[in-house]
Design brief:
Elements lengths: L2 E6 L11 H21 L6 E2 L5 H9 L4 H9 L3 E2 L14 H17 L7 E3 L9 H6 L5 E4 L13 E5 L5 E6 L14 H19 L3 E6 L10 H11 L4 E4 L2 H11 L5 E3 L19 H27 L7 H11 L4 H5 L4 H33 L5 E5 L5 E11 L5 E4 L2 E2 L2 E9 L3 E6 L2 E6 L3 E13 L3 E8 L5 E2 L1 E2 L4 E3 L3 E6 L2 E6 L4 E3 L3 E7 L16 E2 L4 E7 L3 E12 L3 H6 L4 E12 L4 E9 L5 E8 L6 E6 L2 E6 L19 E2 L3 E6 L2 E7 L4 E5 L6 E9 L33 E11 L4 H12 L3 E4 L25 E3 L8 E7 L6 E7 L6 E2 L10 E5 L12 E2 L4 E7 L5
């Protein structure tokens, strides 16, 4: 006789083919009924609100009078909320976003009485292999999930131990029939005998345990007050099983007692064997993914570091605005939301929230850096920040306004090596002066806007330095030259008969036909790319040189190429090509840097297609390397078997998703590609050298399609109607950026070094009154309290070979910051806490800022450490 833990729940998509506003309306009724049912029926022991706290926040904004009643049920563990803020995508968002998602979700749930201690992800499109590390960082030792498993190649039972590259292990339980297995459960004989009991037998077969888990719920379903009666009938009719309302926490407690008999699996859960994973969703709605990436980078590498620096000097910062910005983007990180597989109205909401987060972040940043600069700089001087954990020497770009026609940066009167990249004359406009005779217009003289690249030396770690302006020419300017190449001391890029050739000078590595574009029809939908049967790819044919500029610190080439393409699927089928797609390329080399920076622009007027960039290499590899949260993953380059339809729910193509960097390696050669919001890649390896294919974007106009070439059967999502999404055709101008590095190896440490060099440069702010519109809040007067601050400052420096994940304000201690570091090396790394002795106190904590049972300043490979740094003791 088995005990069947029936888990009553609702799976609550905040948005999808409907908007969040639609969801809020429905939740106001459904969640109220949940509370009323639990209050009135003690036999209805508990209910689950889908493991996310954002929907609780949404509900309580509408029904604040229900807060105490809801909190009483949460505290009594009859209503389970959390641990997530939203049920995150685990591939298309940053590691820090996943951590903040759990942190805010658990904080909100905890404030209401209890955060469910279950890593519940019932519908996420696959699970990255570092999820055990992230869960254990919060003290969560388990995950309950649905998609991504294969019982033939990964594990043989639905309950197992899942181990991460960070050497953490959690109990994993797979929802064999999904989260909607016993949706709308009935007590009729035919329903029980033909559906429920056979499903339970299958779960029993795959579990091997005498207690089983059966979810009873589904998308946006309401609570069924009759469930206790239905389960009583099921128990009576069952050939020996007892059906009881239970919680996921209770079932996990049971699994803990039996974990010693579980098998262990290490790897990602991303196989489309029993459920669709949507392996090509990384290129859907590129505009959403790119904007999200840029906001994540701004928060992590600019806003939060300058806030930490400001607070170290007792500058008041309203960190609630940071929380607001994070929550705005986390609302966009649910699997459908970040996937982009939504109605146009919902995707418009997502873009709006992302832009709100961007504006809040930029506005707060503007005030904080201006406050610091006001204390440190004189008018016209430039404050350059380094938000890395080690001193920085190298190039930095700064924007400067001046009335002088020629300027350069200086430090203590000594001129820096600078190159003028841009100079434009700006109209000073007119100011209005109020006199006794009325208003009088006064013309303001014109002035100049410059962009300089300067070489800085030993810029303080997690700090800043103030630089002065000299009214002297830079040591060099970017000059137009009739040449077909750019070069620095490490790389040379040349255009030879329309073909790009990259030459690494020291090793004499040469890669010909470096870049080519590939265009294919997309007969898929907003979930998946799918080829059009019989379609042949169209490739770009050579580049045209527009300009070449060379200078001592920075050189660039501007090129363009054109592809003659069908306008849409109809033209593809007719083999017509009536439209032209032009791609403009900016290629940049900087002095002393080992990377080629590539910026692309195109204005998409084509429908139903996919555009990929193909990078040639001098390497043959049968696997790809890609970044994950605090780790990397090696994935095989594998052809798809002809009989894949017999085993899989969609084509198990080796198109993969990256956290940011893609690499291939062979012997003592590697090629690394670091993207800005480019999430989807494929390594193409035939008999010759491998190519890295980066998907720039896919363009398609429907939410769900039936019978795709790569996804047979019903449409994903809603399968009884077609939701047209013309905005997902991305008929607009788009920009793409990435960097190519040729290195000797593609170790985790080498990959992170290149990622840091490209994505984490210094940044500057000029204290000036010439231009009050460059930043939106610049023109408003804010009184900053005067305080003594040095012209050069370092908040902290880390001596060990660790990488920075984030430096953020504490949610638990008002006068503390949280420093998160991780280890990209191959061996455990001890961290000397004495280097933080200038802080009032230092605590090693978990991601939730809780004390550890046995804290050690030792960081395992592919793992992290959190330090709570108390800025000053309470007075």
């Amino acid at each position: 006789m088995a005990k069947v833990h029936v888990i009553p729940h609702t799976h609550w998509d905040r948005e999808w083919y409907f908007t969040q506003q639609d969801s809020d309306v429905l939740a106001s009724y459904n969640f109220t009924r949940v509370i009323e049912t639990l209050e009135s029926q003690q036999s209805y022991h508990c209910y689950h609100l889908d493991g996310q706290s954002a929907i609780v926040e949404d509900y309580l904004k509408i029904k604040p009078q229900m807060r105490e009643r809801m909190a009483a049920l949460v505290k009594a563990r009859r209503l389970f909320i959390g641990p997530w803020y939203t049920q995150t995508d685990t591939y298309n968002v940053a590691a820090e976003s996943i951590i903040r998602n759990l942190k805010y979700g658990m904080q909100i749930a905890g404030q209401l009485g209890h955060s469910m201690a279950v890593g519940y992800l019932p519908d996420t499109f696959g699970h990255n292999t570092q999820m055990p590390t992230l869960f254990k960082g919060f003290g969560i030792d388990n995950i309950i999930f649905w998609r991504g498993i294969d019982y033939d190649t990964q594990v043989s039972q639905c309950n197992f131990l899942w181990r991460s590259p960070g050497d953490e292990e959690v109990i994993a339980y797979n929802l064999v029939h999904g989260y909607g297995a016993a949706k709308n459960m009935q007590d009729t004989p035919i329903h029980l005998d033909d559906k429920i009991f056979p499903m339970v037998d299958k779960i029993r077969e795959l579990s091997g345990l005498d207690e089983l888990l059966l979810p009873s719920g589904g998308d946006q379903v309401n609570i069924d007050p009759r469930l206790p009666e239905i389960l009583a009938t099921a128990s009576e009719r069952s050939p020996g099983d007892s059906y009881q309302i239970s919680s996921m926490e209770d079932y996990v407690a049971y699994l803990r007692k039996h974990r010693s008999g579980f098998e262990t699996y290490q790897g990602e859960l991303k196989t489309p064997r029993y459920a669709r994973i949507h392996k090509t969703i990384g290129s859907v709605r590129y505009d959403i993914k790119k904007l999200n990436f840029e906001i994540e980078q701004f928060l992590l590498k600019r806003l939060e570091p300058v806030i930490a620096i400001a607070r170290a000097h007792q500058i008041e910062v309203h960190t609630e605005l940071v929380d607001l910005a994070w929550k705005k983007i986390l609302e966009c990180h649910a699997h459908d939301s970040m996937g982009g597989c939504n109605s146009d109205a919902t995707n418009a909401d997502i873009m709006h929230r992302l832009k709100q987060a961007e504006e809040v972040s930029q506005g707060l940043y503007n005030l904080v850096v201006k406050n610091i600069a006001t204390q440190v700089c004189e008018e016209g001087e430039v404050l350059v920040f380094n938000s890395r954990i080690k001193p920085y020497s190298g190039p930095t770009e700064v924007e400067i306004f001046s009335r002088e026609p020629e300027i350069c940066l200086a430090l203590d009167g000594e001129k820096l090596t600078c190159q003028q990249l841009e100079r434009e004359t700006l109209d000073g406009g007119r100011i209005i002066e109020v006199t006794k005779d009325g208003e009088r217009e006064i013309a303001v003289p014109p002035y100049y806007r410059f962009v300089l690249q300067a070489e800085v030396s030993e810029l303080p770690a997690m700090g800043y330095r103030c630089y002065q302006l000299l009214a002297e020419p830079c040591s060099g300017k970017a000059r137009e030259k009739q040449l077909n190449y750019i070069e620095n001391d490490q790389l040379k890029l040349s255009l030879e008969q329309g073909e790009l050739v990259l030459h690494q000078l020291q090793s004499d590595r040469i890669i010909r036909e470096l870049i080519r574009f590939e265009n294919q029809a997309d007969a898929g939908d907003s979930y998946d790319f799918s080829p059009l049967e019989g379609d042949r790819p169209i490739y770009s044919e050579g580049f045209e040189l527009i300009s070449c500029q060379q200078g001592p610190l920075r050189q660039e080439m501007i090129l363009k190429t054109r592809l003659q393409l069908p306008a849409d699927l109809q033209e593809r089928e007719l083999e017509q090509q009536s439209r032209e797609l032009e791609v403009r390329l900016q290629l940049v080399l900087r002095a002393g840097q080992s990377r080629l920076e590539v910026n692309l622009e195109t204005d998409n007027g084509i429908k139903d297609h996919r555009l990929r960039l193909l990078l040639n290499s001098d390497i043959h590899s049968e696997e790809s390397i890609s970044t994950l949260p605090f780790a990397t993953i090696n994935r095989p380059v594998a052809a798809v078997a002809d009989d894949w339809r017999d085993r899989y729910r969609e084509c198990p193509v080796d198109i993969e998703t990256t956290d940011g960097v893609v690499a291939i390696a062979q012997d003592n050669r590697a090629m690394l590609v670091t993207g800005r919001g480019l999430k989807e890649y494929q390594v193409l390896s035939g008999s010759g050298q491998s190519q890295i294919a980066l998907t720039l974007f896919k363009s398609v106009g429907v939410l769900g399609n039936n019978d795709l070439l790569w996804r047979p059967g019903r449409a994903s999502g809603i399968n009884n109607t077609r939701v047209f999404t013309p905005d997902a055709q991305l008929q607009k101008s788009m920009e793409f950026s990435f960097a190519i590095s040729l290195t000797e190896q593609a170790s985790h440490a080498a990959i992170r070094e290149q990622e840091r060099a490209y994505l984490h440069p210094p940044f500057g702010y000029q204290l000036q009154s010439l231009n009050s519109f460059q930043n939106r809040l610049e023109r408003f007067q804010v009184d900053f309290a005067k305080r003594e601050m040095p012209s050069e400052f370092s908040l902290l420096k880390v001596e060990e070979p660790l990488e920075l994940s984030s430096i953020a304000h504490s949610l638990e201690q008002p006068d503390a910051i949280i420093l998160r570091l991780y280890n990209p090396g191959l061996e455990p790394q001890s961290l000397n806490l004495e280097q933080f002795s200038h802080f009032a106190r230092v605590r090693i904590v978990n991601y939730r800022e809780q004390d550890l049972d046995n804290p050690k300043a030792l960081v395992k490979p592919n793992n992290s450490i959190d330090l709570q740094l108390i800025l000053r003791e309470d007075q």
